[in-house]
Every structure is written in structure tokens, then in C-alpha cells.
Design goal:
The longest helix has 22 residues, at about 180-200. This protein folds into 2 domains: about 5-135, Rossmann fold; about 145-310, Alpha-Beta Plaits. The protein has 11 helices and 12 strands. It has a 5-stranded parallel β-sheet. It has helices at about 15-30, 40-50, 65-75, 95-100, 115-135, 145-155, 170-175, 180-200, 225-240, 245-250, 285-300; strands at about 5-10, 35-40, 55-60, 85-90, 105-110, 160-170, 205-210, 215-220, 250-255, 260-265, 270-275, 305-310.
């Protein structure tokens, strides 16, 4: 059986009875979840940091302030800024900690309850996960969170719907109106999706941004049709704010096609391909993606904004 991957945490400490007990408490709580490497020698610590970067660093500052500055420098020079750095200190020193805020992600006061260290570690990883995964334009969860959510519902006893959403004629719209306007339209669709999903499925939902003008939302199956209808209604009502009056009046805009010829392009619309998921229907996420691509191909051929729910077994 393949060994489960564990995030690696480097801990730089001094040798003392206190830290021996502290280390034991930490391992008792987290050894099954994370792999810890403890360092007491600054040279060895920096070598490992350079050649085997960890997922997180806990650094006891009073032991070696100079090595801390070298650590900060290495993170900057070798593009390791993404690694969370938690500073360990013996007492609350407001001015000192505020001074380090630019280079430190969090801090731990060593005399506090060891369980607080556990929480700091867990919170730092969750924060990193959100920052690394979220789409920079919309703030919505990205592909890692999308995949995890779909994996979860694959094994759920409850029936869900995975709805793939994208804009029609978006590339041509970008060419005509510019990327700034295109970004605003994407953000508009993100707001509409999130608001509609939260309104009609407040207790059970997920909305993610795959990238570009592609989104996904996941809700209980019995709620998806109403949400699709509402998303389309709201999106269509906002289109007039994103095109000029002439294009709106004629129902299309003029743009060059891929052959460089001027052609009439329908106004932007939204297509939603819905794949129902229940336990045992699909064995892995790739099957859902394949089914969604088939449904998407069908719904994209319809004119205007539309949704289609795959009814196949």
C-alpha cells in the first residue's frame, strides 16, 4: 500500500528539559498527521532548508537571532516565501513582534499551553491552502478545492449535482471590449453564482473557479434546477451593463473570427452543464469530467443562456 504523504515541519529549538516535554506534547498531538524534523544546529538547519525545503518552519528566536536573519534572507533569495514561518518566543513583546510582521506568519509564546501550538500549525496550513488555492480574480476556491469536494461527494450517500458553468462568446467579447471589461464580466458571474447558490442552498454548497470563464458549483441534486434558472435570469439581466447601446439594440456585436473575417457574434450568455452524482455512479473524478464535457458540448450548441441536466444513468 502506498505510504500516505505528510507535510514536513522543521522545528529549530534549543536543548532543554522544557523543550523536551514540549516536543513530546507536540508529537503526541500531531505525529500521525505531519512529519517533524527537529534541529539544534544552525548550519544543519540551513542546509536542509536549502536542499530539502519543508512545508512549514517553527523557529525558536532566542536561541539564534543571527540565523533567523539568514533564514529570512534565504526565503527571499530562493523563492521560499510561500513556506509559513512561525516564530517562537518566551514572552509577549509587542514592538518586537510587530517589527517581524513582514517576514513572520504567526508567533507562539512557548510558556502557553502546548495545544495552542497545535492550533497555530493547523491554522497556518489552512490559511496557506486558501491563499494558494483561491483564484486571484474572484477569490473563489480553485482546482485543488474543487477536486477535493468532488472526491467527497463521490462517496456520499446523498445525491449531488456538479454544475459546470462558462460564458459563451467570451473570447470574442474580450477581443471587442478588452480584457478589463472581460475581467469585470467574470467577477460579475462569480458574484451571481455565489449569491444564487447561497440563497437557495445555504446549508450545503460549494462554488469554485476553475480558471478563466469556467466555474463549478455543487449542491444537493434536488436544488440544482432552481439555481440554474436563477443564475441564468440574473446573468442575462446584467448583460446590458457590459455592452454598448448599439450592440445591445441589435443583439450582437461585430468582431473578427479566427480567420480574420468580420462576423456577427451573439451577445455573451451563460451555459451550465449539470452532472448528477450519487454513490456508485462514478468511480473517479475523471469520469465526471468526461461526462461534463459531453453535456457541455451539447448545451453550448443552444442559442442564448441555457442549462442541461444529464439524465443518463
Amino acid at each position: 500500500m502506498e505510504e500516505e504523504f505528510k507535510e514536513v515541519i522543521y522545528v529549530f529549538l534549543k536543548k532543554s528539559r522544557f523543550f523536551l516535554d514540549w516536543k513530546k506534547s507536540l508529537l503526541d498531538e500531531l505525529k500521525d498527521k505531519y512529519e517533524f524534523k527537529f534541529f539544534y544546529n544552525s548550519k544543519k538547519f540551513l542546509e536542509y532548508l536549502l536542499f530539502h525545503p519543508p512545508s512549514m518552519i517553527l523557529y525558536y528566536y532566542p536561541k539564534d537571532p543571527k540565523t533567523f536573519e539568514r533564514l529570512v534572507s534565504i526565503k527571499k533569495e530562493f523563492n521560499l516565501r510561500i513556506i509559513p514561518l512561525i516564530l517562537m518566543v518566551d514572552k509577549m513583546d509587542f514592538e518586537f513582534l510587530r517589527e517581524k510582521a513582514d517576514v513572520v506568519d504567526d508567533f507562539i509564546i512557548t510558556v502557553e499551553e502546548p495545544k495552542e501550538t497545535v492550533l497555530r500549525i493547523e491554522y497556518a496550513f489552512k490559511r496557506l491552502e486558501r491563499v494558494a488555492d483561491n483564484n486571484s480574480l474572484t477569490g473563489l476556491p480553485g482546482n485543488t478545492s474543487i477536486a477535493r469536494t468532488i472526491e467527497r461527494i463521490l462517496h456520499s450517500d446523498k445525491a449531488y449535482a456538479v454544475a459546470y458553468v462558462d460564458l459563451d462568446n467570451f473570447k470574442s467579447y474580450n477581443d471587442k471590449y478588452g480584457f478589463s471589461k472581460g475581467d469585470e464580466m467574470i467577477k460579475n458571474l462569480a458574484r451571481i453564482l455565489l449569491n444564487a447558490v447561497v440563497e437557495f442552498s445555504p446549508d450545503d454548497y460549494f462554488v469554485g473557479h476553475i480558471g478563466g470563464d469556467d466555474f463549478v458549483f455543487i449542491v444537493p441534486l434536488e436544488r440544482v434546477e432552481k439555481i440554474c434558472q436563477e443564475v441564468i435570469r440574473r446573468f442575462d439581466s446584467t448583460v446590458p451593463y457590459f455592452v454598448n447601446q448599439e450592440d445591445l439594440s441589435q443583439g450582437y456585436f461585430i468582431c473578427k473570427n479566427r480567420q480574420g473575417q468580420l462576423t456577427k457574434i451573439p451577445l455573451p450568455s451563460v451555459s451550465i452543464a449539470v452532472v448528477p452524482v450519487h454513490k456508485g455512479k462514478f468511480s473517479h473524478i475523471g469520469e465526471i469530467s468526461q461526462r461534463a464535457a459531453e453535456v457541455k458540448s451539447y448545451v453550448k450548441k443552444m442559442s442564448g443562456s441555457n442549462y442541461f441536466i444529464d439524465r443518463r444513468a
